[in-house]
């Protein structure tokens, strides 16, 4: 089978809804007042993502969540606006497609061969803006996105190991379980050398989400037909949509989305702007961690290549694998919780 379930999903399957909820409650006890200070960020859906990312280890998930809060306080990703990054977007090196996949997941198109700047900081800032925008536009019952990677114009000269490493860091540490699939489409043979360099930066779970697709291989093409409406999918990825990237149309879309974000922050207030109180909470000692772990343990128990893949033998995706492992199953995280927890800038 093309997509194997990770250790985390195996553990998740072994945990009952009650046990999963107990783990979520354990994280809330560990992070203490931070949970009340950031209710959206610490929703069931959000905490569940951090737990899944750390194989349902509550202490590791709590540490990861706190590190994300520290990063958001410093980086302020929810405050990035189109005018701050428009120069990075000019060539369409990254953009959110104007369609979702069949399951309501936002689609980010990446064209690394269209790199137009030399600033690693600016490139990562634009990536973060795109991530936040993709989350803003998720369907109400979704919490993940799909990356489509177009290799038009790509050469080894397009490669920045620094930016690649930082991209993996941001995605894995600050947006856990946001990526459903990364799909490199028609990667050139030389990409194999780059892939060997990239692999050490990726966690095993992230690596397994990368699915190579080739236009001359019928089996791998089924990945696209199972995930996308081919009439909406761009021709660069084997779809029937001939419309390409247009910076002017895209700019208008992003400006409208910025207004949506502003309206949301104004209606609820940007909790992350309350920096000093949050810093104080983050500096509190975690003396109760072991106590919380002991208490929660009584409530619930838990169970606990290197080369570019070739197209031969690729099988269809199962229905569950296509839809992905979502935190909204088993009743743990409802669509409304996801809607609140993400755009919602609180993660």
Automatic annotation (TrEMBL):
CDD domains with a match to the protein in the record: SEC14
Region (Disordered): 275-347
InterPro entries given in the database record: CRAL-TRIO_dom, CRAL-TRIO_dom_sf, CRAL/TRIO_N_dom, CRAL/TRIO_N_dom_sf, PI_Transfer_CRAL-TRIO
Biased composition annotated in UniProt, kind: Low complexity: 275-306
GO MF entry, a single one: phosphatidylinositol transfer activity
Listed Basic and acidic residues bias regions: 307-322, 338-347
One Pfam assignment: CRAL_TRIO
Highest taxon of the lineage: Eukaryota
Domain CRAL-TRIO stretches: 82-245
Entry protein name: Phosphatidylinositol transfer protein 3-like isoform X1
